[in-house]
Design goal:
Number of domains: 1
CATH class: Mainly Alpha
Shape: globular
Radius of gyration: 21 Å
CATH topology: 3 helical TM bundles of succinate and fumarate reductases
Number of strands: 0
CATH superfamily: Fumarate reductase/succinate dehydrogenase, transmembrane subunit
Strand content: under 5%
CATH architecture: Up-down Bundle
Length: 220
């Protein structure tokens, strides 16, 4: 009887720990994706200074083999992060209706931010995976190839949609991670969120300038 009680207790503890481990893994994968997106934007935006600088950076990743590791690795992390986050996404109409009603009733800013994250996640998963697949199947990466793709028109609209969605999702995700894991208190979260909004606007602006640089880059 005692052994049965002990086993039951251990199973209960493990059932409590598992969601915590999954939350931690979700946070960790989210941090990796946030850092990647910031680094990716900085590296691609080097074309603003000079296409040769972007080509040199891309050539470094090609010669060292990092592109063959980082590309598929980020794609796997993207899917893993979505699967982990999907545990808390309301999938049924009943759940979505209840969530919407609660958000309107509570007027809670962080709840609305979470809803924006959920909405943008769906689009980012499809468009982000498409972007990574297209790039990895057309190596090596060069400024001219990127410019040709964007100047086709369709891809310009594609990135014009993907860019703000990604930066918005990343900004909100960073803010919510800081809150969830105790880095922010109620007294300082408002100021931090304001700074995070500024950073998001800066990142989107850099991305838009980069897109325009590719649009105006000679490809002949």
């Amino acid at each position: 009887m005692q052994n049965l009680t002990t086993t039951t207790t251990k199973n209960s503890i493990n059932s409590i720990k598992l969601p915590a481990y999954l939350d931690w893994l979700q946070m960790f994968s989210g941090v990796i994706l946030i850092l990647f997106m910031w680094a990716h934007l900085c590296l691609v935006s080097s074309v603003i200074i000079s296409p040769s600088i972007m080509n040199a950076i891309a050539n470094f990743f090609e010669e060292t083999g990092l592109v063959y590791v980082c590309g598929p690795g980020i794609l796997l992390i993207l899917f893993l992060h979505f699967i982990l986050a999907s545990r808390k996404i309301p999938w049924t109409t009943k759940q979505q209706t209840a969530m919407w009603a609660n958000a309107k009733r509570m007027h809670h800013k962080d709840t609305w931010l979470w809803m924006i994250q959920v909405g943008t996640a769906m689009v980012i998963l499809i468009m982000g995976a498409t972007h990574i697949w297209v790039v990895l199947t057309d190596l090596p990466i060069t400024a001219t190839k990127s410019a040709m793709r964007i100047q086709s028109g369709t891809w310009f609209v594609f990135y014009l949609i993907l860019l703000p969605l990604v930066e918005l999702h990343v900004g909100i995700g960073f803010y919510r991670i800081m809150i969830k894991w105790g880095f922010l208190s109620r007294t300082n979260r408002k100021g931090f969120h304001a700074k995070e909004n500024i950073l998001t606007i800066i990142m989107i602006t850099i991305g838009l300038i980069t897109l325009m640089r590719f649009m105006l880059l000679p490809i002949n």
